[in-house]
Amino acid sequence: MRSYQPDLTPPWKRSAPVPEVPAEPDLVVEEVATGFCGAVIRCEKTAQGPTVTLEDRFGKHRVFPMEPRAFLLEGKVVTLVRPGPGGPVRPSRTASGSVAVPGARARVARAGRIYVEGRHDAELVERVWGDDLRIEGVVVEYLEGIDDLAAIVGEFSPGPDARLGVLVDHLVTGSKESRIAAQVSDPHVLVVGHPYIDVWEAVKPSSVGIEAWPVVPRGQDWKTGVCRALGWPENTGAAWQHILSKVHSYKDLEPQLLGRVEELIDFVTLPE
């Protein structure tokens, strides 16, 4: 019979127990050592022990050993374990990949805002981040262009308790949009952008069922040119509704847009 060996570690040096969480598919966790954050894809048995495969929002996969205290769930340390038969139902996700909060009420709107260029931009942001924005109390408004961005920012009167985030289309070096954005220099305003001529391009072609977005000659209306090249009726409003209907989650969007919207949400929700 093995003799009892008391634990002589001082109480203040003992690790506090952490919850064991079944690694259900779509559970989003962060690996402590690397900071890699992603959704659970699968669990596997290996000669070295069980592993879990995570997929981040850019589609990159990483495999990690399921060691004790190796992951963060909602910012808290947990130990992932293999899900058993008839285990708990996995937490549902919002379209942006965040953990859904059942029954959560919309927060009273903040003074801060996120401005986007056009109606289509606003509808796409609502489609993917709408649940998150309502919980955070963030309102998204569209500007119908940014030619007067400096004046718009001045009229908004940004401050520590009223931050303003602006999402700009085609924000690349040397573009008209980059020159307009450079006119804004306020510590309470963040102007970011994506490289696409129009937010349509931020939807992955595979999600829409096409091989790639067409190249439209300069001087031609881009949206109309896309409809012509794809053989769609030249009704850009109807075309956009078709595109939007194919967007179900962040996985349908290009990383260049995902990162910028997340950046804006973080900026306008910073504590005062």
Automatic annotation (TrEMBL):
One Pfam family matching this protein: DUF3097_N
Highest rank taxon of the organism: Bacteria
InterPro entries: DUF3097_C, DUF3097_N
Domain DUF3097: 20-83, 113-269
Leader sequence residues: none
Protein name: DUF3097 domain-containing protein
Organism: Streptomyces cyaneofuscatus
Source taxonomy: Bacteria, Bacillati, Actinomycetota, Actinomycetes, Kitasatosporales
